[in-house]
């Protein structure tokens, strides 16, 4: 019978549930947490519970926030005529990191993927369409250049174009199969500048 401490095994299992964390990494994290003073574990748990309770979706763009509106939607001076559509809140962070884009965002919280059972109904498509009033002149499709990202961009483009709004797509400075989250600032900036009409 293998040596196992039940509470250590349980902690390791919880870390292993995080996407991208394998069993060995999860075990290293568990041992690290246990090697720290008990206050560290308490602070870690408190931060996790606080984030889980207080973070919600912005009522306008669906990005993560701890208020009614996210800091971007509530900021003065943003270009409200352009909305950049992204799949994930991490993509907003990637765009904001380069400090070049001054418009607004809309977070879909996923991409259309029939094989995974994700259709437009599971995304925030209705909320996006509700935002497209007379003030919006351009929607930038900034989904990943994958099959799912392309399918989502094409689907949204077909819904938005009849409204008389220009729909553009990021230029392919981002490699096919790549993720916006991992793109460097220069590549992301060139992709944004070279976007094309769909």
Briefly note the CATH topology name of the largest domain.
Answer: Dna Topoisomerase Vi A Subunit, Chain: A, domain 2
Helix/strand structural class: alpha/beta
The CATH architecture of the largest domain can be named as: 3-Layer(aba) Sandwich
Specify the CATH class of the largest domain: Alpha Beta
Helix/strand order = HHHEEHEHEHEHEHE
Strand order of the largest sheet: 4-3-5-6-7
Estimated share of beta-strand residues: 5-15%
Helix content estimate: 40-55%
Protein model, in words:
The chain has 198 residues and is α/β, with parallel strands linked by helices. It folds into two domains: 6-54, RecR Domain 1 (Helicase, Ruva Protein, domain 3, Orthogonal Bundle); 75-197, Dna Topoisomerase Vi A Subunit, Chain: A, domain 2. It has eight helices and seven strands; from the N terminus they run αααββαβαβαβαβαβ. The chain has helices at 6-16, 23-35, 38-54, 71-74, 89-98, 125-131, 147-160, 185-193; strands at residues 56-57, 64-65, 79-86, 103-107, 138-141, 166-169, 196-197. The strands form two sheets. Strands 4-3-5-6-7 form a five-stranded mixed β-sheet. It has a two-stranded antiparallel ribbon with strand order 1-2. The longest helix is centred in the N-terminal third of the chain and has 17 residues, at 38-54. The chain is elongated. The termini are far apart. 24% of the residues are buried. The model has no long low-confidence stretch (mean pLDDT 90).
């Amino acid at each position: 019978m293998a040596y196992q401490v039940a509470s250590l095994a349980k902690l390791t299992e919880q870390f292993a549930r995080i996407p991208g964390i394998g069993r060995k990494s999860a075990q290293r994290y568990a041992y690290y947490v246990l090697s720290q003073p008990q206050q560290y574990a308490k602070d870690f748990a408190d931060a996790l519970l606080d984030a889980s309770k207080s973070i919600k979706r912005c009522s306008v763009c669906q990005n993560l926030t701890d208020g009614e509106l996210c800091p971007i939607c509530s900021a003065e001076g943003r270009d409200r005529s352009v909305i950049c559509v992204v799949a994930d809140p991490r993509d907003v962070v990637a765009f904001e990191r380069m400090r070049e884009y001054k418009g607004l965002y809309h977070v879909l919280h996923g991409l259309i993927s029939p094989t995974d059972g994700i259709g437009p109904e599971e995304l925030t498509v209705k909320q996006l369409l509700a935002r497209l009033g007379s003030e919006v002149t351009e929607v930038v499709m900034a989904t990943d250049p994958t099959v799912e990202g392309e399918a989502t961009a094409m689907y949204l483009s077909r819904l938005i174009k009849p409204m008389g709004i220009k729909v553009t797509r990021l230029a392919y400075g981002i490699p096919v199969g790549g993720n916006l989250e991992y793109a460097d600032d220069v590549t992301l900036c060139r992709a944004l500048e070279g976007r094309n009409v769909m």
